[in-house]
Amino acid sequence: MTLHQDTSDLSNLPENLHLAILNALPDGLCFSDLKGRILFWSQAAEQISGFTTAEAMSSRKPEQVLSYSDSDGHPIAAPSFELAQTMQQNCFIRHKNGFHLPVQVRRIPLLSPIGAPLGVLDIFTSRAKASSHHELHDVDTTHASGTVLSANELVDMVAHAIHRQEKTAAPAGFLLVKIDNLAEQSRRYGPAAAQRLISLVVETALRCMHRDSWCGQWNDGLILMVLTGHGEAETQKLADRLRSLIKSSQFRWWGEVIDVQVTVGTTLVHKNDAPDHLIRRLERALASQSPATAR
Q1: Burial class (CB in 10 A: 0-12, 13-18, 19+), 62
Q2: What is the torsional sign of CA 285, 287, 288, 290?
Q3: Across 77-170, where does the E strand assignment appear?
Q4: What is the pTM of this model?
Q5: The predicted structure's pLDDT at residue 142
Q6: Degrees (nearest 5) of the Cα angle 203, 248, 282?
Q7: Helices (H), ranges, the chain
């Protein structure tokens, strides 16, 4: 049995259909020729890396546009062309702004119809697999120093921070933030108002954080913050500042001002720590705080 492609309606399709299909994919796509020059850079690659198509394709040093590293920040060398087909690895990609994001990368060789090598296709996929309930789509990142991640990406960064402190003694602090009376606000004003409140707190947190720090929505409306380079004093100072800024903020919803206050739990990396242990400790720290303490 022979399968044939139906071409009866192809005349009505745009000439750049294939390009539109590639740009619709959520994975970042980068095609490099045998000299390493970037010849294709998808829209998802722009969103993930921060580098525009023009910047990527005009770069004289493509390795500065697309580079991978392990959890210690050590560069991961690209495999030889012969091994590229089997290359699939969890690692980190360097964003244009300097921070690192967890991705899964695949390298696939592209061949001509006669089998001659043409170059390599890099496919880098965000390792975020959280549901949309734990993702933030309306956060204003203007003037933000930190980076918004999904719940699954935050777990990766907690593990990264623990590993980094064990290897380099670089401190890291962690905050778990709860919006007081969020459930009541949701019942009174609706779930859209509650989600916007969460985004407001995240936006405020982003402006408090240093570069190479991360935050995002955790579960049950909680917000998790991973702070690199923060010892105990710096972590507590940021928690106090966040409480103060949120308390002084005015949130308006359909003309009505909603009073917003938060409770914050903090912790640091302990000896022989693990992500699940640290997060449970952080949850206990939050539970030990009362709304009155946060105020």
Answers
A1: middle
A2: positive
A3: 87-94, 100-111, 117-126, 147-148
A4: 0.59
A5: 52
A6: 55
A7: 17-24, 43-49, 53-58, 62-65, 151-168, 182-189, 191-208, 232-248, 275-287, 291-294
Query: Which residue do the tokens 């720590």 mark?
Result: 273
What is the rounded CA–CA span in Å between residue 239 and residue 234? 9
Structure token digits, residue 11: 């005349």
Give residue 201's Cα distance to chain centre: 17
The CB density around residue 263, as the number of other CB atoms within 10 Å, is 21
Answer whether residue 258 shows pLDDT above 80: yes
> What does DSSP assign to residue 84?
G
First to last CA, the chain: 74
pLDDT on residue 249: 82
Question: 171 is written with which tokens?
Answer: 């401190």
Write down the residue that tokens 């999904």 correspond to: 150
| Distance (Å, whole) CA 86 – CA 75 | 19
Is the predicted pLDDT of residue 191 greater than 50, yes or no? yes
Q: Which of 97, 32, 30, 101 is nearest to 69 (CA)?
A: 101
